[in-house]
Amino acid sequence: MTKYGFLGIGIMGKAMVANLLQAGLDVTVWNRTASRCDSLIDMGASHADSPAAVIEKCDITFAMVSDPEAAEALCFGEHGVLAGMSAGKSYVDVSTVAPETSQKISAAIKEKGGMFLEAPVSGSKKPAEDGTLVFLCSGDEALYTLAKPALDIMGKKSYYFSETGQGAQMKLVINMVMGTMMTAFAEGLALGDKIGLKMEDVIDVLAQGAINNPMFQLKGPLMADGKFAPAFPLKHMQKDMRLALQLGDKHSQPMYTAAAANNSYIKARDNGSEDEDFSAVMKVI
Ligand code: NAP
User: Fold this and answer.
1) Tens digit of each residue's pLDDT (9 = 90 or more) over 241-267
2) Does residue 239 carry a catalytic annotation?
3) CA quadruple 194, 198, 199, 204: dihedral positive or negative?
4) What CATH homologous superfamily does 169-284 map to?
5) Angstrom distances, CA of residue 223 to CA of 173, 178, 190
6) Residues paired with residue 30 on neighbouring β-strands, in sequence order
7) Which of 66, 95, 234 has the most ligand 1 atoms within 8 A of CB, as the residue to mutate?
8) What is the C-alpha to C-alpha distance for residues 108 and 93, in angstroms, rounded to an integer?
């Protein structure tokens, strides 16, 4: 039976591991803050003391951490992924990072004889809980095939792009669109409110037309109520906007609306909303 590892038990990691366990898979978990693993251990997960120990014990190890800095710390740090890596081991990083981060980690894993797949996800806390994420994969195709049964438990669809870094690029393009849509939506709600329209009416009228989408309908009523419990933390949205803008800069693609939206996320992050949902950008709008 394949042994699976999972590093990073945050909002997303916890929900993803719960689905793997419910499907009967053998999963060993590790998180920097160990107590966040407790509920998964209660569900049947094993625990290991370091990322290296998880890699050594498991055939395929997934990682879901905050950002490029966390992904690198996890891989290259003391008792990190690389310290446990050897031929026959596989590593799937599902965090949202810069393409260069994936490429750097991929090269280091391959040098140790392991296989690497980047597989950032489209979808938030609820799709993670429902097992309906979308995986944007690139890297070792043989590992994509090996990991597919687990990806199919955690998600509803997987894409494979051949070149390492393309999964990260696709993820950043998608989240850049999402981040700018959210600020436009928040501005619409705020303007409506200021001129005496009810926010719920604005959301309902939006729902009737071609620009309706699940995000407006899911987040809108919560935003109107001033509820911003984190499904996708604002600090991660701002990180994705920053990485997408860096990608645009590198490839000479101007992104005027994304740059403006990013300023709102920076302001909201620095105003104390970093750990709230990204829809809390509404507070500074
Ligand atoms: P989260 O709840 O903030 O969890 C972040 C995880 O990263 C925690 O397990 C944290 O450990 C770990 N971490 C942070 N810095 C670390 C370091 N230096 N070394 C080791 N571990 C470290 O975030 P999340 O919402 O699950 O998101 C995780 C990733 O998925 C991010 O890249 C995010 O952009 C992406 N994503 C999120 C969503 C969403 O809707 N939430 C959707 C798609 C993609 P501690 O518990 O010790 O802090």
Assistant:
1) 999 999 999 999 999 999 999 999 999
2) no
3) negative
4) N-(1-d-carboxylethyl)-l-norvaline Dehydrogenase; domain 2 (1.10.1040.10)
5) 24, 16, 10
6) 7
7) 66
8) 13
